[in-house]
Amino acid sequence: MYAAKKIRCPFGQESVVQAMKEVEAYALFSPHPNIIHSIDYCVSADRSDPGAKTVYILLPYYRRGNLQDIINANLVNHTKFPEKRLMVLFLGVCSALKAMHNYKVKGGPGGAKSQNNAKKVKADAGRADQEAEEEVESRRGRQRGRETDPDSEQQEPLMDGEVTMSQEGIAPGGARAYAHRDIKPGNIMIDDDGVQPILMDLGSLAPSPTPITSRSLALAVQDQAAEHSTMPYRAPELFDVKTGSTIDTKVDIWSLGCTLYACLVGKSPFEMRSDETGGSLSICVLGGDWRFPDEGAGGKKKTTNQPGQSEDSGISESIREVVRKCLKVEPSERPDVDELIEIVKGVIEELPEDGPS
C-alpha cells in the first residue's frame, strides 16, 4: 500500500518548480532509515487550463500514523508515552536531522545525481505543458493563451535555485548543510515495526546557513517561514528575521524541543502558554515564555495545583533538561545536532526500563 501526495500548482511553471523542489529533496537523503523517500512522481496538466498543473508524489504508507496521532490518542485515553520509548524515537529523529545538517555532496560538483534529477523534472514539466496546450488548441480552435518556448525554458533555474544550485562549487564529499524548518509531531511518521521514526514533508527544506544580507531577503525568508514552518513549532528567529543575522540549522533544534514537549504534555509549549495567558502565541515564542504544567515562574515547582491537575506531571528531570536546552531563545545557546544526540543517548541510558503498556 502506498500514499499519494497531491500538490496543486495553479500558477504554472513557477509553482511546479516549487513543488518539484520537494521531489528532488527526497532523492538527496535516500536511503536513510529515518527519512522518507519518494517512490515515483508525475506532473499532470489540467486539460482545460494549461497554466494549472498538479504534481503527484508516490510515498510509502505507514499504517501506524504519526506522532501527532499518538499524542491525540494519549489525550483521549488519558495515557502518556513510555519515557524510554519516547526518547528512543526522539533519537531516531535526531539521526534524521544529522543526515540533513551534516549532508555531504554526492557525485560531481553540484551533485551529479541532483543535476540529473533536475533535468528530468524540467523535461516532465515541459511535456505536461505541451500536451495540455495541444489539447486546448484542438478543442477550442483558437490561439494558445500562454506561449511556451522550450528553448528559453531550459535557461530557467530549476528548483528555485535552492537545492541543486546550492551545491555548485562544492567538491564531492564536501559539506552542504540543509535545515528541515518544519519539524513537528505531524511530520514524524512511525514505521510499521513501531520503533523507527520517519521524518517526512521535505517541502520546507532549505540550504543552511542563510546569511540575511538585506531587508528584502529578511522579508522573503520570513514569508517563506510563515508559509512552510508551522507556527507553534517555529523558531523565534523565523518570526522576526533581522538583517545581518544568519538563519541556520538551530531552527530545527528549537522545533525538536517543541516536539518533545508536545509528546510529553499534549501540545506545543507555546500553545500551552498562550492558552493559559490568553496572549499572542508569537509573543510567547519571541519571549521564550513557556513552562511545564507543574511549574510556576522561573521553572520552580508549583506549591499548589489547579483543580483537576495532578500533583506531579511525572516527567523525568533529565528529559525536562533536554527540552530546556533546545528551547533557548538565542540560537547560539542551543546544542547542535551532534551534541543533542550525545545528550539524548545519556538520558536513554539513565532512564529505567518502561513498565508494561
Furnish the topology, listing elements before pairings.
Blueprint lengths: L1 E8 L3 H16 L11 E7 L2 E12 L6 H11 L5 H19 L10 H29 L9 H4 L24 E2 L8 E3 L6 E3 L6 E2 L2 E2 L3 H14 L7 H4 L6 E2 L2 H16 L3 H9 L3 H6 L30 H10 L10 H14 L7
Antiparallel strand pairs: 1-3, 2-3, 4-7, 5-6, 8-9
Give average pLDDT, whole number.
Answer: 82
Give the proportion of residues in helices.
40-55%
Helix count, DSSP H or I runs of 4 or more residues: 12
Whole-number tally of structural domains? 1
CATH architecture label: Orthogonal Bundle
CATH class: Mainly Alpha
Q: What characteristics describe this protein?
A:
globular; Transferase(Phosphotransferase), domain 1
Please give a quick description of this structure:
By secondary structure, the chain is α+β, with helices and mostly antiparallel strands. It has helices at residues 13-28, 67-77, 83-101, 112-140, 150-153, 215-228, 236-239, 250-265, 269-277, 281-286, 317-326, 337-350, and strands at 2-9, 40-46, 49-60, 178-179, 188-190, 197-199, 206-207, 210-211, 246-247.
Structure description:
The structure is a single chain. The protein is α+β, with helices and mostly antiparallel strands. It has one domain: Transferase(Phosphotransferase), domain 1 (Orthogonal Bundle). The chain is built from 12 helices and 9 strands. The chain has helices spanning 13-28, 67-77, 83-101, 112-140, 150-153, 215-228, 236-239, 250-265, 269-277, 281-286, 317-326, 337-350; strands spanning 2-9, 40-46, 49-60, 178-179, 188-190, 197-199, 206-207, 210-211, 246-247. Helix 1 (13-28) runs antiparallel to helix 4, helix 3 packs antiparallel against helix 12 (337-350) and helix 8 (250-265) runs antiparallel to helix 11. The radius of gyration is 23 Å and the shape is globular. It starts with a strand and ends in a 7-residue tail after the last helix. Residues 139-161 and 307-311 have low confidence and may be disordered. Residues 304-316 have a biased composition (Polar residues). It holds the Pfam family Pkinase. Its EC number is 2.7.11.1.
